[in-house]
From TrEMBL, chains A, B:
Gene3D superfamilies tied to this protein: 3.40.50.2300, lambda repressor-like DNA-binding domains
Pfam families, A to Z: LacI, Peripla_BP_3
InterPro entries in alphabetical order: HTH_LacI, LacI/GalR-like_sensor, Lambda_DNA-bd_dom_sf, Peripla_BP_I
PANTHER family to which the protein is assigned, alphabetical: HTH-TYPE TRANSCRIPTIONAL REPRESSOR PURR-RELATED, LACI-RELATED TRANSCRIPTIONAL REPRESSOR
Taxonomic superkingdom: Bacteria
Classification via SUPFAM superfamilies: lambda repressor-like DNA-binding domains, Periplasmic binding protein-like I
Limits of the HTH lacI-type domain: 4-62
Annotated region described as Disordered, given as residue ranges: 205-225
Listed CDD domains: HTH_LacI (cd01392), PBP1_LacI_sugar_binding-like (cd06267)
Listed SMART domains: HTH_LACI (SM00354)
Native source organism of the sequence: Kitasatospora putterlickiae
Keyword terms: DNA-binding, Repressor, Transcription, Transcription regulation
Protein name as annotated: LacI family DNA-binding transcriptional regulator
Listed GO MF terms: DNA binding
Amino acid sequence: MPRITQRDIARLAGVSQAVVSLVLNNRTDATTRIAPETRQRVLDVIRETGYAADPVARRMVRQLNQIIGVFTYESVFPSTSADFYYPFLRGIEECAEQLRCDLLLFTSAPVTDGRRKVFHENNRLRIADGCILLGRDIPHDELARLNRENYPFVAVGRRDDAGGPVPCVGADYAAATRKLVERARELGHREFAYVGAGEGAESADDRMSGFRAGTRGGGRHERTAGRSAGETLDALLAAGVTTAVVEGYADGVALIRAARERGVDVPGDLSVVVTGVPAESADADIASTGFRIPRREMGWQSVELLAALLEDRSTTTLKRLLPCHFVEGQTLGEPRRDRS
Amino acid sequence: MPRITQRDIARLAGVSQAVVSLVLNNRTDATTRIAPETRQRVLDVIRETGYAADPVARRMVRQLNQIIGVFTYESVFPSTSADFYYPFLRGIEECAEQLRCDLLLFTSAPVTDGRRKVFHENNRLRIADGCILLGRDIPHDELARLNRENYPFVAVGRRDDAGGPVPCVGADYAAATRKLVERARELGHREFAYVGAGEGAESADDRMSGFRAGTRGGGRHERTAGRSAGETLDALLAAGVTTAVVEGYADGVALIRAARERGVDVPGDLSVVVTGVPAESADADIASTGFRIPRREMGWQSVELLAALLEDRSTTTLKRLLPCHFVEGQTLGEPRRDRS
DNA sequence: CCGAGTTGATAATACGTATTATCAGCGAGG
DNA sequence: CCTCGCTGATAATACGTATTATCAACTCGG
């Protein structure tokens, strides 16, 4: 019933608790010497008993635990956003495995208003050495507080500063979105529209800024909030738009569907590019053009960055931006002559 | 910037550390009394400083870490067996969340020969209060050692005893398989065959024993190892079998495909039932009849069982079997007259 | 045979919190 | 004046590990 402790190991090996600790940590200083046979005896007992140091106690004295926390602002294994999280988690796990770290999922954080909060009654953040933050959007005040408390963390997805620089690994939406626009321009397109919120979250800001860069400051902005795909389509066609840059994948699919239903040819009458195509498209009938977010790589690098932070707090490059991969779909083509 | 402690609070409020702790935990026993004004003074200082008790030190005192380990014998977030693990993990997470426990994924366990081992050089099993074991098959010696070391654990999937009873939460394959056979019998079937290994793993044993019970000890056994689906099909037809009970879903699909290619009608000429239909069939063209394994529920209950073990080691029901749900597909029907 | 140096191990302590035993002070009753 | 009972607070300790100071035993040169 009671947990095995160093004291137990010591008793079994006929040594003191201190020796067990020294052996365990493989200390070989000039000041701390241990006879080879004694060391072996201790190691044998450890192996036989399967003893492992209590991380909580270890954490009391040391600073590192070989445990990386993973905090998700939604549940970790959800049904709906499975496709969203899974690639991140794969990358995180793979890197953690290589670093010989365990992963602690903060499932104990209570869910209020449909989302978790890092800072609740008695948060257990400090059990882990540091933490990976995962979530569509992360409250600004939580990031600020993490910074204030000097807790090592890395956010997955680019984040603005919050009471100091926020370490993060994001995808370069701006460059990727700009590239999409320029590719359309090369095909002859001149009338662009950005479809989506275009603000609110960093990811939306970046896409929009990339769009602006590609259109040299021009282009329309069609918000989707509160509108049906059909209404958006009408607005686009009425404005003479030939290329729609759609923020969300779901919105993109809906727009293409609406166009098809009305006999509007895609990409003949309207080209549609999507800023974020899922790895495995669920809608096999629509091969949308756009770019793919390197989710697995982002997960991997976020752990790597966290490890760097833990090793050396003065790491310089706190923010990493990874390139997105272009997806050659079938929804971008030359515009009709009679329109441009 | 050293972390603020109860000692600091005590100094600021002009009391002892013990009083701070007592106030913090709102202790109001007859034995521990605190003057209202003193309590208020302490509370004020706590509020002003924004102090929060160090969860690590707190866990140090209470013996349980509120951490449940999850050990997977393959990687946790794989690409291939995603469908296999995901539902289990969902259930595990949901239950852990309710219990206010965190989940520790043992990603630090080195992978040797394509699989992880619980007991390796310096395993960190004891970091968690107990552990959930997840894997297609779990080495007998590992289970035995866990029992020998009196480490609290629960296996997902039924397991035979190994040096003592093995706590587990499984699916009742025997009952479900038997039911499939009996359902076929009601439709007029008399010639059955079990297709698959039928031994080796507990899950296969259970299916086979259910099959035997349903056929009253009769029925053929067609092993698939080293044979093509076509060969198996030939053997079945030659033996006059009208209902094939297939162990693996993939084998079932292959068998049905092979039959279609040869113009063998399913279920007209041959009924096929599958002992384990995935939640979302990837092969949409084949709606196979069989039963569904309650994976999410298994995950949930395994955590629940572990929690019970941790609370009271003398828990009686160490093994739980959950019912499987019948899936009404289109591969089971009445046998042709001219055959039976 | 003695002091110095070396080897190998231990006792003591710190980390921050929770709990228990103890203690000082005080009013009242004898 | 002494003791008992009560209140309110503190000292002491435990949790399990890491580290530092200390210590006993032994070797060796002189």
